[in-house]
Structures are given as C-alpha cells and as structure tokens.
Specification:
The chain is mostly helical and 455 residues long. Among the domains are: 183 residues, Regulator of G-protein Signalling 4, domain 2 (Orthogonal Bundle); 105 residues. Helix content is 49%, strand content 3%. It is built from 19 helices and four strands.
Amino acid sequence: MVYSLTYRRPAHVSSSSGSSVHSEKSANAESVTSRSSCPYGIPDALSFDRIIEGGTCPPCTTREFMNFLLYIENSAENLQFYLWFRDYVKRFDQLPEVEKNLSPPWVPEQSKPKIIHIKATSDIDMSPEEKRKAAQEVSQAIKGTDFDAKAKLTTNEAGHNPFNTPPRTPSSDKESMSSSMAGWGDDGSTLFSGRATSHTKQSAAAFESAKAFQPFTVQPYREEISRIIATYITSEGARCLNLSDKESAKLLRALSITTHPSAFREVVSTIEWTLRHQSHPNFIRYTIRNGNRPRVIFARGLGIGGIVGGLLCAVIFTLSSAGRGWRALSAIGFFIGIATLIAAWKGMCVVLHGMHHRHLRPWELFSEEDSSDYEMKKDSMESLGSNNSYENEPWIAKYEKRNVIRKIFDREVWIQEPALRQIQDTIFLQAVLCAFVLSAVAVAIFVPLPKGNYF
C-alpha cells in the first residue's frame, strides 16, 4: 500500500525566517497578478509541485528554491526535510512485505497507555469444572515451551541452559574496530552501525526526554531515522526544525514504536503547509525581480528623474510664451518616468526586461570564478548534510568589496523559464498602461492653463 502525501493547514504555523542577508533581503516584490487557478495568482507552470518535481527551468528550479530558503528566508531545513520524506516514502513502499510488517502504520491511539482490567479470582471461588478448564488452558498455552512440566530439561541431558547467554566469539582488533564504525549500507538506502554512534546517542536521549520507549532496532531504516532525529528533531540538531515541544514529543513517541512514514504525518503537514503557502509564494515574488537591489534603486531614481523632468518641461512651457502644443512634450518625461518607477517598484528593471535578462544572485556570481568555494554549500541538497550556516562562505566578503557602480552593472543571464517571462511581461504591460494614463492626465492639467509670457 502506497502512503500518499497529503497536507492540511495546521492550527498554528510559525515561520522560521531569519535575519536579512545584505541588501537582497530587504527588497520586497509585489504579489503576482497573472491569472491562474493556483493560490496567490501563481500560474500552474510555477506551482509548488511543478518546481519540486523538476518541471521548471532556471531561475525557478528546486536548486534556486533551496538557495532562496537558505540565503533569504533562512528556512532551508523545511525543504531539506520535505525532500527527504518524499524519497523515504518511495523507498519504504518498495520494501518487501516482511519488512513492512515490522513497522506497521502509526495510529495516534498507540501512544495512550492501555489499561487492562483483570478480575481477581481465587481457587476457593472456582468450581471444580472451572479449575479443570483453567488448568487445561494453562497447559495448552505452555505446551512445548521450557515451562512445560512434561518437557525434557535440556540442562540435564545436553548440559545446556536455554536461559544462559552464549559467550561471544573472540574477534581480532581489526574486526572490533570495524564493528564500531558506522556508514551507509550496500544499497545506499539506509545506515548501519556496529556500536552506538553520536546520532544514535542523541536519538536515545531524545526518546528518553519525550518519555518514550527505546525503539526496536530490527525495524527497517531504524538507523536512518536515528540520524533524522538527531539532525532535524532534537534542539541540538544541525538542521533543527521549528517545532514546538508538544509536536516533537508526539513525533518521538510515534517513532519509538514504528518507522512507518505515517509517524511523520502531523510534522510533514505543518512543514508542507509552510512551504506551499509561505515560502513558495515568496520565492515566486523574489524571482520576478530581475535586478539586484542597487540596480532597482538606480531604476527608481531614473523613474523619479523622468517624472521631475516632465514636470519641469511642462512648467517651463506654461510660463513661457510658447504655444500650448509644446506642453505635450512633457508627456515623454512623464511616460518614461512613471513606467520605469512602477516597474522598479515591483523589483524590475525595464532595460533588463527588454532583453529578458536578470542579474546573477550574489551567491551565483563567484560560482564560475572559484567553483571550489561555491561547492561548499552544495550539500544543502543532501538530506543529511551539514548545518545551513553560510556566514563564513567566501562569496560574502567578495561581494561586500564590490563598489556600487559595479553592483549596478553586474553580470546578467538569460531567463529560461517562459512562465516567469510571461509574468514579467504582464507587469511591464501594466506599468506602460498606467504610465500612459497618468501622463495623459498630467498633460491635460497643464495644456488648458493660460500662457505665462514671462520669457
């Protein structure tokens, strides 16, 4: 039976957004305005599922989405955990039925202690028929076991006590050393360990703090689940999820009983809701911006300059003795200035849009210059990689050393995603229409005024 991925809106969802990264984080793009059946006006071609399944082109791929969560929202652990869970569901479903039966689906009622009421009866209260029936049931239950009175004691005949623990086979130093090492299995699907490793100790401590039983190690993927707990669930984890104590305790109690994907049901619902309804819309708004913050500020300045130039032109021709028709020339300044300002207000540069280009993000600029530095955060796509800290990455210091002029004219790259270009075309068309209407209104105000005849 396939465990399907579903999501629901939880009663309380907290955002794990962090502090800003340079000036890129402080710029906010407006909401998407294209027609779509998806929430927030996002087109179906840029839906969350389409991005996760790899059906989009740069700059809207899963890798760009991960970089956005890593460097902008500081919540990459949500997508990392979600991608691991999707892969885990597929791998668990491919297990043989014998192994699946070791980890049955999780039922929340399993965490509640079962109280069994036993009616105490004595031999005095029992009738002879009841005593005989009870004796038969007991003898039938222990028949063939070591508690059977009729069974032969192996201790007397074979000199072996079944309750004794057999001695361990002596091993060499090399074998004992290898047994203490941990690593991936031969098929690469799960982990194995000979002795308790750091993540198994952390998961054991987490189970103890949640007042849950220590789990059975015979269950499939138990070692991998221990690493997931140590990485994402415990407060000391390298990629600790933003979960409440109650959510963590419920998850740990579930994982102490089974490794079935249904144990993650509530946590995955919360994570997926956050990704779909918060991070994904923010990512689409961010990708609409085709210029970095210095370029957008520069474009806004040009827009304001165009509006001021049109206004000065209209005032000068109004105060002069020139004909009223000359005042219509101010519409050029109004139109260019207003269109540029509206587009820049949504994070777009009209010059870059004319070529369907975008600026490279700060963390992308140095990928070709020094690939070894950029490879440092490639493990962000790995489910069990290092922490998501990036403060020591070399590109941060290099980008800070760039002057403003160089940032304004940073390297550009062509936008490959057609759906994103269509959204930008819509925003540009809206900016042009608004600029045409407002410039016409401004000219209509100045044309009827009488001549000033001052010069």
